[in-house]
Amino acid sequence: AKHLIERMRVFAGDLVASSEIQLNFNADADTENVKLTMEQRKNIFLIFKETVYNTIKYSGGKNLYIDIKRDHKNILLVIKDDGTGFDVNNYKSKNGNGIKNMQFRAEEIKAQYKIESSQSGTITSVII
Description:
By secondary structure, the chain is α+β, with helices and mostly antiparallel strands. The chain has helices at 2-17, 38-58, 99-108; strands spanning 22-27, 63-71, 74-81, 112-118, 121-127. Helix 1 (2-17) packs parallel to helix 2 (38-58) and helix 2 (38-58) runs antiparallel to helix 3. The chain is globular.
């Protein structure tokens, strides 16, 4: 997972560089040794990319928090913002990949995908 985490860090860093959002990226060292299949890496990165892109573009928040932790045998990826939130049940992303698409990507690799949003921000979590 080490290369995947590095790609995530670079991608998020590049995107926030042209925005007003402050990036807080934390990855526990023991997550780097977790072995993931190519399909897992691909789908996790696509979910991550879509979530970070939408957060920066639409959340209106000041902070983007990305945490990658080890939870027993699993990796827990949490992407949080302090933006205005949105109705997760009535949402279509501007670039075509909506929440249903991300749920499908997670199911494909037997991961759990969850998104919650309120006026105080949005939290997306993926358990791989």
